[in-house]
Amino acid sequence: MISPAITRLIEALRCLPGVGPKSAQRMVFYLLQHAREQAKLLASSLDYAASNVTHCNRCRTFSERDICLLCNNPNRDQSLLCIVETPIDMLVLEQTGTYRGYYFVLMGKLSPLDGIGPEEIGINQLLERLEKEPIKEVVLATNPTVEGDTTAHYIAEKCKAVNISCTRIARGVPLGSELEYLDSRTLTQAFTHRALLAEACD
Amino acid sequence: MHVLLQPAWILHTRAYRETSLIVDLLTQDHGRITLVANGVRGHKKSSSYALLQPFTAVLVSWSGKTSLYNLRQVEAQQKMSYTLVGRRLISGFYANELLMYLLHRDDPCYELYQRYTRLITQLAHNNRPYHAKLRYFEKNLLALLGYALNLTCERNEQGQMIKMDANYSFDPEMGFSRCQNRVGKPSFCGASLLALDQEILTTPKHLQDAKQLLRLALQYHLRGRVLKSPLLL
Ligand SMILES: [Zn+2]
Asked: Which residues of A touch B86 (CB under 8 A)?
């Protein structure tokens, strides 16, 4: 390669998921040829975010302030706390606009076989919040995997110990899908967690 | 090597590269094996992804020469769709931790597969008691690994028969010896040892003795590795 700077940039871009050598090369030449200004903006934004974004002290999501914007918003429902595995989960829930409470981000899930226990997912911090804040309901939105279930069970037990009610987002058949093509586990779960139609129509 | 539709349980999976999984399974005829499942994760999740979860009974086909095989096909075993919940789920993880750390790969053990199947079935039925079953699983696992506990004789067969009303201390290498309830060292009632041997644990005392004993024996073979699932109970 003629330019060590370009080689280095191509290598650096390959840390992104889904970016192989070919696409990294294409990105680099595009930026240099057609988008110098945007390239500089990209570089400075990346640099700023990588050095300044840490975790919110309250909900543990990514934030460059001690307390993130969402936790700082006084107009949300203080009695609700939703627990998610990752900041992306929190983001997609926010985008639905259905939830008005606060969040706690585990930054992972309990996984005994990967050596991830309660400490690694910030349980102590969560317990502290349950104790100090006027939370009435904890909504568990962990993923429907066995590790997600284990995490949900563990947190539910902790909530029970301090008399806070605990709910879990429903699971089952995805909208627009067909039963014929569902795996048997999803189908079993959907059946186990079936809901009264009258209740659903209220 | 090419194996077709082998009955197996998923023990553990972890992400591998961008769209793949490394899957550990307990198979009926090939022992614990490790497979790579290519292209099952990510946006274009394949339908096999939902099956590649711990505690799923599957029929699995694989090929390859090394000890890291390639997954060819996976489907659910019929009428074996179980869901473990709560403490039973954590007990399931405990069993999986034991198998992951104590079993060598590619070492066939048909009996272990049968015993594991029975354990998971028991754990999946919320109205069935499972603590005793978990103890028998631990005891038989040790035996199948070649570390059988001799629960009927003192000092691994050199001594006297274990008596119902005597107390014994346990050493993982030496076996059981009579003791006078010394302070600081765990001791086990002879009746508990015999009940574990016969697989008729019923009283809380027997269950508690068996649990403590098996924990000591397993700890010895785990060589200092600390299991995470008991921390969740
Ligand atoms: Zn926050």
From this structure: 153
Cβ neighbors of A201 (< 8 A, separation 6 or more) are none
Residues of chain A with pLDDT under 70: 1, 198-202
Is the predicted ipTM greater than 0.90, yes or no? no
Shared domain for A97 and A157, answered yes or no, is yes
- Do A25 and A108 share a domain, yes or no? no
Residue B92 makes CB contacts below 8 A (sequence gap 6+) with B54, B55, B84, B120, B123
Question: Cα(B222)–Cα(B216) distance, rounded to whole angstroms?
Answer: 10
Q: Is B141 helix (H, G, I), strand (E, B) or coil?
A: helix
**A7 and B CB contact within 8 Å:** no
Are B14 and A188 within 8 A, CB to CB?
no
Closest to A183 (Cα-Cα) out of B20, B74, B71? B74
Q: B3: part of which helix (H) or strand (E)?
A: strand B2-16
- Is the CB of B232 inside 8 Å of chain A's CB atoms? yes
Q: Measured in whole angstroms, how far is the alpha carbon of residue A107 from the centre of its chain?
A: 7
CA-derived radius of gyration, chain B:
20
CATH code of the domain containing A46: 1.10.8.420
Strand runs (DSSP E) across chain A, as ranges?
A: 54-55, 62-63, 77-84, 101-105, 137-140, 165-168
Give the tens place of pLDDT for each residue, B13-29. Answer: 999 988 899 999 999 99
Chain B CB within 8 Å of residue A15 CB: no
**CA A100 to ligand 1 center in whole angstroms:** 14
User: Cβ distance A106 to A85 under 8 Å?
Assistant: yes
Residue of A120, A114, A125 whose CA lies nearest to A158: A125
- A97 and A136 in a single domain? The answer is yes
B53, B76, B100 member nearest A146 (Cβ)? B53
